[in-house]
Structures are given as structure tokens and as C-alpha cells.
TrEMBL record:
One GO term describing the cellular component: cytoplasm
Job of this protein: Involved in unsaturated fatty acids biosynthesis. Catalyzes the dehydration of short chain beta-hydroxyacyl-ACPs and long chain saturated and unsaturated beta-hydroxyacyl-ACPs.
Positions bound to Zn(2+): 79, 262, 266
Swiss-Prot/TrEMBL GO biological process terms: fatty acid biosynthetic process; lipid A biosynthetic process
Name of the molecule in the record: Multifunctional fusion protein
Cofactor: Zn(2+)
Enzyme Commission code: 4.2.1.59, 3.5.1.108
GO molecular function, one term: (3R)-hydroxyacyl-[acyl-carrier-protein] dehydratase activity
Species annotation: Spirosoma pollinicola
Alphabetical keyword list: Cytoplasm, Hydrolase, Lipid A biosynthesis, Lipid biosynthesis, Lipid metabolism, Lyase, Metal-binding, Zinc
Localisation per UniProt entry: Cytoplasm
């Protein structure tokens, strides 16, 4: 799985009819900055309202997932979101001149192809994964549905479907690596049973559905004259089925378990509404959009519960955003006052820096000899240097500026920092920069425990 956030290099568009609304629309994917996430924009409505791809914005689950915000509604978002997750793209603005993304062939493959054509660009920020550390379960006993998220330092999904049908036996699909999504899952099409078809039309759904964008499963004997009725319903000159039961118009399946794979595709798209990439083993028995969304809400609540205790995670095996050489180019500090070894995360509002504390630090011989403790003032200096990187990132030519610490408030030292510790500093803006002055909140952690914190004021001064 990627460690850096990604967007696309240029905008790209697809056009077609919406599955349920039957309205033709053009959907354009545009690059977006770090931590933007997935947002839809209805450019056909006054004010061009934006709808966040958020599970709390789900308003309808009638054979698809519909979201709404500020009076703007987007139908059937799951195939679009699945393509973005499948390519590990984090930040995109999705503009629509209609109420629903084009259904295309009923899968995600044409979105995948368009996004690959646009090109994928790595961004200067780490992905904000939520790693499931305790099992999350959802059950619907009436429909025999069960979903579970189990702890795993990866993202894997397994889906089982069982429709009690003579045409479709119990099917399983799995995805062991999200990078396999484009080739193994993305081209699996949506499907409907013949006995559901007329009811869906009567519910004013699938107005844009036909045999080019959905698989129709004939799960009962078709009576004389019924094929002509179905042809008229689907606006086709003729429809057929080789056997009394099978696939309408004898469409060839991409895989024997294409239906289970499409259910997995839907789940990937629906779980994107959590708002963050997740690390977990997902197990799903007979999932559907309503269950997926309810499950996503449970995971989001767990994320919110843990947010107050969120500690930056550091994996020393991953390449830094800025190594020591780049840090030295940006900051004027040198030994013994160069305190930061690397920057592992940096975006528009926050930064995470690493300080490896060794016994060779020059202050240890004179600061509590025989009981070495890192001076609080040096912890504060390291935190300020981390914040200095964030302040410098606000200008296009940081080499022409000095970052000065001009104020400290609410400073606290919670625990001793000792030789051998690795301190993770996180600083974030608490106010917009005005006339070169900005406020930040900084915290330092060792082994997931808070060791120091302070509110800082910094000044960005241009070199003469």
C-alpha cells in the first residue's frame, strides 16, 4: 500500500447516462491538494455546490449509494469511488453536470482507464491511514448479513454471496492486495435478477439501465411472449436467453464469480465514504449498500472515538518527506543546534518531524550528569524547528526566508526524554498567517506518550 498521498496529473472526463436517473452527464476528475479527499461538485446547479464523499451524507440506498449536501444530490457514487480507491488516489475533485455519474458498462473499468490516462502524481504528504486495532462487526440477522473488520496492517477483502438461485450458486471473491483491483475487480459489472427488473422500473429506478451496462440474470422460466415484453421494457429490438434460465441476451461473464466480485467492488466504493484509507481485513457475508454504509458508520465512529488520542505513527523503513540534507537546506541551524533528523509528513496545515536522542548529545555531560535527561528547552527548540519547516512551506522560495520563534504559551513537559528515545514532533497551524505571523500548536511524543506540548507563535522574515 502507498505511503504517500496521490492525486492525478491533469483533468480527465467521461460521459454517459446515469443508471437510475437516466440523465446524461459528463463527469470530470480534477487534481486536488493534499488532504482534500474525494469531493463531488454539481456544476449544473446554482452556486456549484460541493458534496463531500462522506458516509454521514448518505441519504438513499435504493440499489445504489446516494449522497447529498447543501441541497445537492449525487446518485450511485460507489463505482466512481471504487476506481479511486483501487488506484490509491487520495485527492480528487469530481465535477458533474448532472445528478449521477455515468454508468458506463456497469463496472469501474472505464473510470480506471480514464484516471490512468490522466496520470497519477505523488504528493508531499503521507496517507492518513486508520488501522483497525479492534474487531468491528455489523450484523443483520433478518437478512443473514454479517460484516467484520479485523486488525491487519494491510487492506484485504473477502466477500461471499448466496442468492438461493439455481443460476448463481454461492460465490466467493477476494482481494489480497489493493493494487490488484484494476486487473481483477474493476471490470466486474452490476447485475439484477429478472424477477427484480419490472419492480425496479415501477420504483422509477434503472431508467438508464439496458443490456450494455448491467447483467440480467434469468432465474425462472420465461413464458411465451415475455421476451417481447422485456425487449420493449429495455428498449431493445430483441432479447433472448439460450436456456429457460441463464443470462439475458446470453452475455458472457468475465469471471464465473463476476457477481461476487462486483459486490466486492461495491464494498470498496462504499467504504471509501469513511473518509480515510483503512488498514483491515474485511470479511463480508451477503453484503449490500445498506449494510456497507451502516458498517462504514461504525468504523467512522471508532475513528472519531480515537481521534482525541491520535498519535503520529513513525515507520523508520519508509522514506522521509525531507531527509537530513533537505532539512539542512531549509533551516539555518547547525550542530549542536540542528535538532531535527527528518520530516515524515508535511501538508498545508501540519508537519511531523523526528528527533533521535542519543547519549552523544552535547548537553548530557552537564545536564544531570549520571542521570541524563533531555532539557525541556531543547525539546522546545526541536519542536520549534519542526514548526519552522511548516512555516517555510507556505512560501514558494523558502531559501529566501528566516523562520523565527517569537512567542511561547501553555508550555508543559509531561515526561522525561532519555538517551535512546525517538521523539515524534507534530505541529499544526491554529490560525491563518497574517503579515508573516502565524500560530501553531506543537506536541512531542515518545512511545505513543505525550512528553511535551506548547502553543507557539512564529514570524516569517524575508532575508535582506
Amino acid at each position: 500500500m502507498n505511503t504517500k498521498q496521490q492525486t492525478i496529473q491533469k483533468s480527465v472526463s467521461v460521459s454517459g447516462v446515469g443508471l437510475h436517473t437516466g440523465v446524461s452527464a459528463t463527469m470530470t476528475f480534477l487534481p486536488a491538494p493534499t488532504n482534500h479527499g474525494y469531493k463531488f461538485q454539481r456544476i449544473d446547479l446554482p452556486g456549484n455546490p460541493i458534496v463531500d464523499a462522506d458516509v454521514d451524507n448518505v441519504v438513499d440506498l435504493s440499489r445504489g449509494t446516494t449522497i447529498e449536501q447543501s441541497g445537492a444530490r449525487i446518485h450511485t457514487v460507489e463505482h466512481t469511488l471504487a476506481a479511486l480507491v483501487g488506484l490509491q488516489i487520495d485527492n480528487v475533485l469530481i465535477q458533474l453536470d448532472g445528478p449521477e455519474p455515468p454508468i458506463m458498462d456497469g463496472s469501474s473499468i472505464q473510470f480506471i482507464n480514464a484516471l490512468r490516462e490522466a496520470g497519477i502524481e505523488e504528493q508531499n504528504a503521507t496517507r492518513n491511514y486508520f488501522e483497525v486495532t479492534e474487531s468491528v462487526h455489523y450484523r443483520n440477522p433478518e437478512k443473514d448479513i454479517e460484516l467484520a473488520a479485523l486488525p491487519l496492517n494491510d487492506y484485504r477483502l473477502t466477500v461471499m454471496v448466496d442468492y438461493n438461485s439455481r443460476v448463481i450458486s454461492s460465490q466467493h471473491a477476494y482481494l489480497n492486495d489493493i493494487s490488484q483491483f484494476p486487473e481483477q475487480i474493476a471490470n466486474c459489472r452490476t447485475f439484477v435478477f429478472l424477477h427484480e427488473l419490472e419492480a425496479l422500473y415501477k420504483q422509477n429506478l434503472i431508467k438508464g439501465g439496458d443490456l450494455t451496462n448491467a447483467i440480467v440474470i434469468v432465474d425462472r422460466e420465461v413464458k411465451d411472449g415475455e421476451l417481447d415484453y422485456l425487449a420493449d421494457l429495455l428498449k431493445k429490438p430483441k432479447v433472448s436467453v439460450n436456456k429457460q434460465e441463464g443470462i439475458l441476451n446470453n452475455i458472457q461473464l468475465h469471471y464465473p464469480n463476476e457477481m461476487a466480485r462486483h459486490k466486492l467492488l461495491d464494498m470498496v466504493g462504499d467504504l471509501a465514504l469513511i473518509g480515510r484509507p483503512i488498514k483491515a481485513q474485511i470479511l463480508a457475508a451477503r453484503p449490500g449498500h445498506a449494510a456497507n454504509v451502516a458498517f462504514a458508520k461504525k468504523i467512522k465512529k471508532l475513528i472519531q472515538k480515537n481521534a482525541a488520542n491520535q498519535v503520529p505513527q513513525y515507520d523508520p523503513t519508509q522514506p522521509p518527506v525531507l531527509d537530513i540534507n533537505r532539512v539542512s537546506q531549509l533551516l539555518p541551524h547547525r550542530y549542536p543546534f540542528q535538532m531535527i533528523d527528518k520530516i515524515i509528513a508535511l501538508d498545508e496545515n501540519s508537519v511531523v518531524g523526528i528527533k533521535n536522542v542519543t547519549m552523544n548529545e552535547p548537553y548530557f555531560p552537564g545536564h544531570f550528569p549520571g542521570n541524563p535527561v533531555m532539557p525541556g528547552v531543547m525539546q522546545l527548540e526541536a519542536m520549534a524547528q519542526t514548526g519552522g519547516i511548516l512555516v517555510l512551506s507556505t512560501v514558494p522560495d523558502p531559501e529566501n526566508y528566516w523562520p523565527f520563534l517569537v512567542g511561547i504559551e501553555n508550555c508543559r513537559f509531561r515526561r522525561n526524554v532519555l538517551p535512546g528515545d525517538t521523539v515524534i514532533f507534530r505541529c499544526e497551524f491554529t490560525s491563518p498567517m497574517k503579515r508573516g505571523i502565524v500560530k501553531m500548536q506543537g506536541r512531542g511524543y515518545v512511545a505513543n506518550l505525550l512528553v511535551c506540548e506548547a502553543d507557539m507563535i512564529a514570524s516569517l522574515v524575508k532575508k535582506k
